[in-house]
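ok so for the tutorial part 2 we go from a plain amino acid sequence to predicted C-alpha cells. step 1 is just haveing the sequence, like this:
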Amino acid sequence: ETMRDCHGIRSLIRCLLELHIDDPQLVRLAAAAVLTREKGLGWSTEEMESVRQELKQLEGAWRRFLSGPAAEKSVERLAALHLAFREMEEAVLKSVPIPSLEELILRVARIQLGGSFSCLEDVEAAVLWPRGGGLSAIAEDALSTCLSSSKLGVGGASRVACLVGAMLSPKEMLESPPTTRSSNMCDASATGVTGSGAMVC
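step 2 — the prediction. this is what the C-alpha cells look like for a chain of 201 residues:
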C-alpha cells in the first residue's frame, strides 16, 4: 500500500503516541465502547448519558478536523481519541478483546495513512519525520515508499528514517571522528543498503 501524505492525520497519530497506556481517558473510552453495545436498552443512567455526550464531543471534533483548515491542538486530541474509540467499538461489536494502546495506534495508522506498520517504531518514523523539511520531492517520495513497504520487517521503517537522518546530518557531524558518528547512525545492513549505497525497500 502507498502511505497517504496527510500532515493533519499525522498530527492526530502523534496525539495518540503521546498517550500513556494507563491514561484514564482510554479506560473511559473502553467502558464507553462496551456501553455502545447496550445502547438498545430501554433504560439509561446519568453516567451513561455523560458518556454519550462525551462521545458526541469526540465525533464533533473529528468532523471539525475533516471540514476545516489546521485544527487547534485540543481539537486534534479529541479527534484522535475518536479514532481510537472507533477501533475499540469495532472490537466490542465483534466480541473480541479491546486492543492495547499499541495495537490501537497501529490500526489507526494503517487505516488513516494507508501504510504497512508492524510496530510503534514504524509509526513514529512515519509521523515524526519532518515532511517537506528540506528533502527534494524525489527523496520524499522514496522515503514514503520505504516507510510504507511491507517488506521492511519489524522496526524497518524507523531504521530507514534513522539512516536518512544520518545522511542529512550537519557537515560538522559528518566530519566528527568515526567513534562519535557510530552512535548516531543505524546499522546500514539492517536497513537493506547494498554495497553501492543503494537502499533496498
